[in-house]
């Protein structure tokens, strides 16, 4: 559970970031605006009859796009492995910082393969969501830095040469 200390900059950043992200999501949902990139319907990789029909034919997709499916599965697997590895090395905050890049890839894939158009509301809303997300991440990183400082200040056996955990092992 999050602790709310309204006087702390980290709490203010996380609260404002949350509100900004919600506002961005509302803009994406409620405001369409002008087309920034207008794609012609013939620029679709998958024909409309296969994407929107209720009789979605997976055998047709697998037969005609097997290589693309294999690449997608390998890509998702590699991304997951990298996320797990980075999380073990740097922590979940570092991994979360790169999540908005997935939005950009999703838009590019939507344009290339599905013939999607991009509208001004989507671009503005996404930018606002990303700004709010990074405000939340900044606030969380400030809290973690403050907690790490408390750990070092409270530790009586802290040595600048030996890391904190190794000190505990030596004492036992």
From TrEMBL:
Entry protein name: WAT1-related protein
PANTHER family, A to Z: WAT1-RELATED PROTEIN
TM stretches of this protein: 12-31, 65-86, 93-112, 118-137
Coiled-coil positions: none
Keywords (A to Z) from UniProt: Membrane, Transmembrane, Transmembrane helix
Major localization listed first in the record, in broad terms: membrane
Cell location: Membrane
GO MF term (any one): transmembrane transporter activity
Keyword Lipid metabolism: no
Source domain of life: Eukaryota
Gene Ontology CC terms: plasma membrane
Bilayer topology annotation: Multi-pass membrane protein
InterPro entries xrefs: EmrE-like (IPR037185), WAT1-related (IPR030184)
